[in-house]
Specification:
This is 3-phosphoshikimate 1-carboxyvinyltransferase. The protein has 449 residues and is α/β, with parallel strands linked by helices. It contains 13 helices and 26 strands.
């Protein structure tokens, strides 16, 4: 699918954001292994969390979507009949994780300690992403994990456990990854004894919040522990709106000539909200109001207004895992800011749905931006006017949406190929964008003038 985005000087509106993808995956998995019925309010309608649902259904978990049962903010519910960890059944075929790294890595952890074999596959993008980072700790725990060239298809051999099951370990994360942390902790539920993950650099903490795990600060490092055999409680989960989806509108509002955009019920977990800190450091005007809690996660309403100019910043160090998915959008803000922005310590971007360092540099350069790739990031010399171009999303939702935001402030139309990728995390994105920038979104290539 091709979408053409026309420039828009003034933005206004209240786009509805999708449910937080990270929380939605976890709520579905934890509900599946709880004993009894759980309700998930505000589950995401995005493709990635639906890949998780399809896998859980194939493992014998009954999940009912109930658009008629609404939560307080009008979002629909999902009812999950939890079977307990021991109640998961062998899938009749391979489990297709689609485009979703979180699905594959968390399910590797969940299923490594089950007494049956499982094969996990994904699309071409996911098949190229590194899985050894999860396989290595699972093997240390006694799991039998086969990879194909370091990635999917992933084979988990239950028979390889030889009746002894997994054993708890203490594992220090060599890469700052919440997916690896969560996979090891999920495997720890099937293991003998205690499993502890040590995080030198904090990553998103949804798993530990949602499972109410023990977290210690030991000399500045986080130690997260789970006991083997611990039961997961069936309960009501409430999923906040996704701050990673909000980021596109925060950048759009901060780079427009005139803007007032309101975003309600946005998850502001402090391990996820670095995008606000960086945009504010660049000079953005973002107001946070009505701060409250939703399902154990802090949420708030956001209002972004055009600040009348941004300045370049340095992004690196411990904040990077906190805003890793927002970097393509932040690079767009950098292109519209005066001065230089340096993004470092973000080599992980090279192993996402596509190489996001190369893809971001490519679309910004095609639009006239001055961008230099570094092995672990980007240097953006901002303040040059951007012009319309034809760009490719490279099958990556965040690249499609970041390019769309860049297009709003450019001269002339920008055509985005592969625009359907947005639905991986934000199915209503193009409608939401048209809602704040009326007349800017044209489906298909531009109409001849
Ligand atoms: O745990 C999660 O929900 C996620 C963790 C991050 O990946 P890594 O764990 O690979 O850093 C992030 O990029 C991804 O979108 C979601
Ligand atoms: C990297 C992402 O997701 P995943 O790793 O789950 O594919 C993302 O949503 O930006």
């Amino acid at each position: 699918m091709t979408v053409t985005v026309h420039p828009a000087a003034a933005l206004a509106g209240s786009p509805v954001l999708p449910a937080d993808k990270s929380v939605a995956h976890r709520a579905a998995i934890f509900a599946a292994i709880a004993e009894g019925e759980s309700q998930i309010i505000g589950f995401s309608d995005a493709a990635d969390p639906h890949s998780t649902l399809a896998c859980l259904r194939a493992l014998g978990v009954e999940i009912e979507e109930r658009p008629d049962v609404l939560g307080a903010d009008g979002t629909p519910s999902l009812f999950v009949q939890g079977r307990g960890l021991g109640g998961l059944r062998p899938a009749p075929g391979v489990l297709d994780c689609g485009n979703s790294g979180t699905t594959m890595r968390l399910l590797m952890g969940l299923l490594a300690g089950r007494p049956f074999d499982t094969t996990l596959t994904g699309d071409a993008s996911l098949s190229g992403r590194p899985m050894e980072r999860v396989a290595a700790p699972l093997r240390q725990m006694g799991g039998a994990v086969d990879l194909s060239d370091g990635g999917a298809p992933v084979g988990l051999r239950g028979r390889g456990l030889r009746g002894r099951g997994l054993r708890g370990i203490t594992y220090r994360l060599p890469v700052a990854s919440a997916q690896v942390k969560s996979a090891v902790l999920l495997a720890g539920l099937s293991a003998r004894g205690t499993t502890t993950v040590v995080e030198p650099v904090p990553t998103r903490d949804h798993t530990e919040r949602m499972l109410e795990l023990d977290v210690l600060d030991v000399g500045g490092e986080r130690h997260v522990s789970v006991e083997g055999g611990a039961a997961v409680r069936a309960r009501r989960w409430v999923v906040p709106r996704d701050v990673s989806a909000a980021a596109f509108f925060l950048v759009a509002g901060s780079t427009a000539e005139a803007a007032v955009i309101q975003l309600s019920g946005v998850g502001l977990n402090p391990t996820r909200s670095g995008v606000l800190d960086v945009l504010r450091a660049m000079g953005a005007t973002i107001k946070v109001s009505n701060e409250r809690e939703r399902g154990g996660e802090p949420i708030a309403d956001l209002r972004v207004e055009a600040p009348g100019g941004l300045a370049g910043v340095e992004i690196g160090g411990a904040i990077v895992p906190n805003l890793i998915d927002e970097i393509p959008a932040l690079a767009v803000a950098a292109a519209y800011a005066e001065g230089q922005t340096v993004i470092r310590d973000a080599a992980e971007l090279r192993v996402k749905e596509t190489d996001r360092i190369a893809a971001t540099a490519a679309f910004l350069r095609a639009m006239g931006g001055a961008v230099t790739e570094r092995p672990d990031g980007l240097v953006v010399d901002g303040g040059r006017p951007l012009h319309g171009a034809t760009v490719d999303a490279r099958g990556d939702h965040r690249i499609a949406m970041a390019a769309a935001v860049a297009a709003l402030g450019a001269t002339g139309p920008t055509t985005i190929r592969g625009a359907e990728a947005a639905a991986v995390s934000f199915p209503g994105f193009w409608e939401a964008l048209e809602g704040v920038a009326v007349g800017s979104v044209e489906h298909g290539p531009p109409r001849p003038a």
